[in-house]
Amino acid sequence: MSNIKITIDGMELCADETKTVMQVAEEADIYIPHLCHHKDLHDVGGCRLCVVDIQGKEEAQTACTTKVQPGMIVKTKSEKLDEMRRLSMELMLANHVDDCTTCPKYLKCELQSLIQYLGVSTSRLRRTLNAVTVDTGNPLIVRDLNRCVACGRCVRACRDIRGVGILEFAKNEEERTYVGVKDNLTLENANCRFCGACVEVCPTGALQDKAGVFKEGNRNDVLVPCKNECPAGINVPKYVRFIKEGNYDEAAAVIREKAPFPKSLGLVCMRFCESACKRSGLNGAVSIRDLKRFASEVDSYKWKERAFKKESTNKKVAVIGSGPAGLTAAYYLAKLGHAVDVYEKLPVAGGMLSAGIPDYRLPREIVESEIDLIREVGVNILTNHKVDSIAKLKDQGYDAVLVAVGTDKGVRIPIPGANLKDVHVNIDFLRKDVTHLDIEMKKTVAVLGGGNVAFDCARTAKRLGSEVIVVCLEGEGKMTASPEEIEEAREEGIQIYNNRTFVKVDENDGKVTGIVCREVEDFHFDENKKLVLNIKEDSEHTIPAEMIIFATGQKADLDSFGELELSQRGLVSINDSYHTNIEGVFAVGDAVTGTASVIQGIAGARKAASNIDIYLGGDGAIEEELSVEQPLDPNIGLEEGFSHKECSHYSCVPVEERIHNFDLMTVGLDQESAKCEASRCLQCDLRPKLTKMKFWTEYKVK
Amino acid sequence: MLLENSTLCGHGLKGHSIRNRWNNKEWNELACLFIEDEKQSENVRYLLERYQKEICNGIIICKKELHINTIKIYISDCYKEYVGQLKEQIKQQLGELGYEIIVVTNKKHFEKEVFQELTLVHHAETMLALSRSLNKDDIPHKVITISGDVKNPGIYEIPYGITLRQIIDEYGKGIKSDKEIKFVQVGGNTGAVFTEEELDTTFEYENLMGYGTMIETAKIEVFPSDTCIVQWAVDKMLYNSKETCGKCVYCREGIYQLYKIMKDATEGKGRDGDIELSIELSETMKTGTLCDFGKSASNPLYTSLHKFRDEFDKHIDRKVCATLSCLAYANLYIDPNACDGCGACMDCPEKAIKGGEKLIHVIDVKACEKCGRCEAICSKKAVKRYGSIKPQLPTEPVEVGSFAAGGLDEKKGLGLGRRRRKSE
């Protein structure tokens, strides 16, 4: 590495002898037109746009392949050079779709920007494009060879950066050159890793992400959909990769960085990550939740050494409600040095995690073990403590109060018979053991509703020995419960009646005998969010049942907090800092958002905790690095059968063994299947590491 | 050193001395090539049949001079029948160890493999020349293929320094047809065109390179006066466009673009400025492409554009093809004096030929699509072409032998036409 002096366009520059003229120019922010050159790829000098004059050389040289030499005098601009560049562009464009405006890359295209820079028209050349059909055969990448200029960037990215090498220059029947997939296979069959590097480096519209694969937004974020879609922003690719490498402690630590309930999430998370997973269209999303479960199960808590715990601030915070939101906020507030008391009206802490979600899905001991870690950082949880008044609480010397009471008041639809003895609501039913509510089970139970809670009720009733049916308004496939919940319920012998609206509870002498329904053809919500039903004529019928459970939604129980300003939906109103209308009182979780998921509660609570810390005079910094830095190897290599690699996920205990008890009914992945599943990851986080090429307008000297 | 002052020029070194090449680097491997594009010539076969021993001697010299231990011999798979023999020969002269014979099926892979940093690459013919050069009285020779319109096509060893005319006359025994030589292409498919007047050029590296050709592909192809230079250039450009590796734009798109432009010229679709555009393209390609193939690929067109400019102009501006090769500028007719009424041409896809048993057939010009099927099928060669002057023909089929001769002097008619235009 020795520094030499060279001159580019009259500018004297210090350069490293190993560099090319192009590299030195780029460092000095001098633009030399280029197309096949890409910062991350070795140069081939194919596009001939970067030709420059070098004093002493008769012929123009390509800047990208010419190494600098001491005293070199380079001229990047002249009419002759521009003529050469224009001719090269004209030749490329003669073999390129004529119309830019129909291209998805319009205004984001390097080729188009070069047309503008060089002022090129194609009129004097013969059109040489022999149109071919656009390859839309796979769910992720669209290949439009009519827009390809054969710069070979994708070929080099696939081969040299990724070590996959399935793209190559090939010749068609007329022996014209094109960039093809090895042996003319589909990308899937050619063992494409779908890493997207080829799309990322393509300077034209020839390689594109299929519409809808990525959302709009900051590119570096949206390119990693699992992480981006996770409300808490858990670095999914990172922990999946750690699992693949067998580094489970680090994997667990990655999850911990954003969420204090990894085990619970591993069992019940709504999996926004998996819905967004790029692999889902290919042959099923990576079973991210199961990987999370695996990592958290084998976690040896090494991350504790790296966790932060600040000095005491002598500030006191009261949290009302010990659900995932309340406890998450409490966890971070305690770590930030505040004294935190959590008030829980029930005898157990955990909110819906322990008193709501049935044990066969999420055993109470698991939640308890996670809460222990929260207690460990100093959170004081007071169970059996119902808070009646915020004012009284504040009088006890709390500097801040966080309302995280959730939505635990079941909704009874006002139909005749709704208040009969054997008619119950979801949450009361689910937590009857915790609250010692005496509910006498009946032989036949009808659960009204189509969400996850409805299925929790139904499957709980099933385990208590009843015959169970689920009746809901939504049609088949429109139910909000997760597909596997529905599937597993069916396996357990639970019948589902779709498209029903409820007329009344049928009774005989005060005893429930069934639910009277009508069939619904379709329904929608009007502009006032009022439900509008289109009922089938003469469709009234009775579905027999001796017990009815309403599982048609929950509300927040805010009766004790009359001074809080509420939204139209009866939820607590907050500003951007999670502050309610009362000074020093914050709110978070379902009580603010309406019934949502555990991970959304956690994500909100992290932000609320940060805001409360700022309110209390802290810096609000809750981010922590619990896992080690992970070196990313861009060379992912070829793997036979990669795109067809089958996915493995949790398995269920056989129906006969599970419907008579409340034992956890799922079995997670073992080490081998977890590693295998993790290896299915498309490693979307590698793509943002590729250098984003600058347009000519972004250079200082152009 | 034995070859301190050798001025031997290597095959593939653009006329540079192999001594310079040798001194360039600390070579650790020698690759000797018996590689050839079989579509072009069979010079390598010639070497394999005659000079295996001498070539091996050359390899030995090279090995000793440069202290090279590893020798790789690459041979095109079209010559694989010689592998056994070659192996035996090498074994006799070099012993059992230190060499490898590789049969090349894929030229692209071969190129990637052979051109390594410290591999000295020589053609077998260079090895032959090397072993011969030890003889003080040796006159350097070159193996060349003579083809095209000559009486005695074949592979010859010719001494450097004689003229192209001598090569054609003495080795090729002159033109075969009764026509005159229109031009000669020297150097295979990317070679330059030499007109009749230029045949006194001597066969030497520097000399021929000045004309933009290289003689690595030592092929001389002779074309007679009825060759349409435009049509010929179209074919060459199409052929060369298929040979491009595709990496650089000028070569990949440029040659094809030249093909398209020239094809249009043969089809009546030529435009003003096409010649200037073709020259600009060719000249940019000559300096701008990545490799030597790209730099020379436009040679056939570029040189003929300069030497037969008039003919190109006529195709593009006047839509005239003097040799009637371009059917866009000619019509087909049936010579009433040659047609024997056999009916073979009657199976016309356009039903454009009228006739009957023992009747002279007549082509309906309006219906004719000029597919050329009748021309190919006629055993009497009675289907002919005319340009701007239509010969006297029967309008309806008449009995064979009944159409009055005379007034059918096609040559005269065309000649008149051409002269008239020139004087305009």
Automatic annotation (TrEMBL), chain A:
Using the record's annotation, list all stretches that form the 4Fe-4S His(Cys)3-ligated-type domain: 80-119
Q: Any keyword Cell division?
A: no
Note the InterPro entries from the entry: 2Fe-2S_ferredoxin-like_sf (IPR036010), 2Fe-2S_ferredoxin-type (IPR001041), 4Fe4S_Fe-S-bd (IPR017896), 4Fe4S_Fe_S_CS (IPR017900), DPD_II (IPR028261), FAD/NAD-bd_sf (IPR036188), FAD/NAD-binding_dom (IPR023753), Helical_ferredxn (IPR009051)
Spell out the PROSITE patterns in the cross-references.
2FE2S_FER_2, 4FE4S_FER_1, 4FE4S_FER_2, 4FE4S_HC3
Keyword Zinc assigned: no
Q: Which domain of life is it from?
A: Bacteria
- 4Fe-4S ferredoxin-type domain span: 139-169, 183-212
Using the record's annotation, list all stretches that form the 2Fe-2S ferredoxin-type domain.
2-80
The record's listing under SMART domains reads:
NADH-G_4Fe-4S_3
The cross-references to PANTHER family, in alphabetical order and at most eight, read: GLUTAMATE SYNTHASE [NADPH] SMALL CHAIN, GLUTAMATE SYNTHASE [NADPH] SMALL CHAIN-RELATED
User: What name goes with this protein?
Assistant: Ferredoxin
What's the source species for this entry?
Anaeromicropila herbilytica
Show the taxonomic lineage: Bacteria, Bacillati, Bacillota, Clostridia, Lachnospirales
From TrEMBL, chain B:
Entry-linked PROSITE patterns? 4FE4S_FER_2 (PS51379)
Residue spans crossing the bilayer: none
The alphabetized UniProt keywords are:
Iron, Iron-sulfur, Metal-binding
Pfam families, per this entry? Fer4_10, NADH_4Fe-4S, SLBB
Q: Which GO terms describe its molecular function?
A: 4 iron, 4 sulfur cluster binding; metal ion binding
Q: Which domain of life is it from?
A: Bacteria
Q: Which InterPro entries match?
A: 4Fe4S_Fe-S-bd, Nuop51_4Fe4S-bd, Nuop51_4Fe4S-bd_sf, Soluble_ligand-bd
The question of whether Metal-binding is a record keyword is answered with yes
Q: Where is the 4Fe-4S ferredoxin-type domain?
A: 330-358, 359-388
This one is known as 4Fe-4S ferredoxin-type domain-containing protein
For this protein's source organism, the top of the classification is: Bacteria, Bacillati, Bacillota, Clostridia, Lachnospirales
